[in-house]
Amino acid sequence: MTHQYDEFVKFANFLADESSIIITKYFRTKINIENKEDSSPVTIADQNTELKIRELISSKYPSHGILGEEYEHINTKAEFVWVIDPIDGTRSFIAGHKDFGTLISLLHNNEPVLGIINCPAHNERWLGIKDHQTTCNDIKVNTSSKEKIEDSYLFTSGQFFYEPFLKKGFEKIKEQSKYFRYGGDCYMYGMLASGLIDIVIEDTLKVHDYMALVNIIEGAGGKITDKFGKNVNIESDGSLVASCNPKIHQQLISIINS
């Protein structure tokens, strides 16, 4: 890793530290909840966290772009672009459930080179760097070695799949899996990277929901693509299939597209 990338990693961890300070101040307190145009909830914790991260990025790297959830995108054609989701799992956060987290990613020429899942309520942070092994709290982690769907633990955030054939494929995989659970937000991707679960399938995600996950899952030995098996990027369709290794991943993609 170059000195420049060492600096980016240090800065990304600093952003995660700062986000934790703001988020934990509001967690399990009575705060006002608003609904955005898409009916998804937003709180002052989401807004203040993203504003703080944006302020820090713009101060440190004024030439870098910023793509966030709550506010307008800035300079997204830049060589380096930060992709941020201040609170992934706002509904969990509002309900006092701990599986929410902050997602931070850095793109270099539109390619993800760094990703963080920071879950302050669990005191866990996954860090993925391109061509490096993923860590959780500075300890190297690996995905599981399971190769059969019938041995696997399957997770998804919600019960709604808007692509009919993705829903049909998901139901087939669900029937074959050993264990299934709804819910988990970004925390379930951390569990996948740490070898605790084996498959995550989701739909209708936005770029800030998935970009940070790429380096984390791949750096732990897993595979992450869209429903067609294509690598995800800033123009992906929002479907996401993440699994513990390429062998089981191919089985999943085949079932979804059969």
Task: Offer a concise description of the structure.
By secondary structure, this protein is an alpha+beta fold. Helices cover 34% and strands 25% of the residues.
Supply database-style keywords.
single chain; alpha+beta; Fructose-1,6-Bisphosphatase, Chain A, domain 1; 7-stranded mixed β-sheet; 5-stranded mixed β-sheet; 14 strands; globular
Could you describe the 3D structure shown?
This protein is α+β, with helices and mostly antiparallel strands. It has two domains: 3-140, Fructose-1,6-Bisphosphatase, subunit A, domain 1 (Fructose-1,6-Bisphosphatase, Chain A, domain 1, 2-Layer Sandwich); 149-256, D-Maltodextrin-Binding Protein, domain 2 (3-Layer(aba) Sandwich). 34% of the residues lie in helices and 25% in strands. The chain contains eight helices and 14 strands. A seven-stranded mixed β-sheet has the order 3-4-5-6-7-8-9, sandwiched between helices. Strands 11-10-12-14-13 form a five-stranded mixed β-sheet, with helices on both faces. β10 (153-156), α4 (164-176) and β11 (179-182) form a beta-alpha-beta unit. α1 runs antiparallel to α2 (44-60). The relative contact order is 0.13.
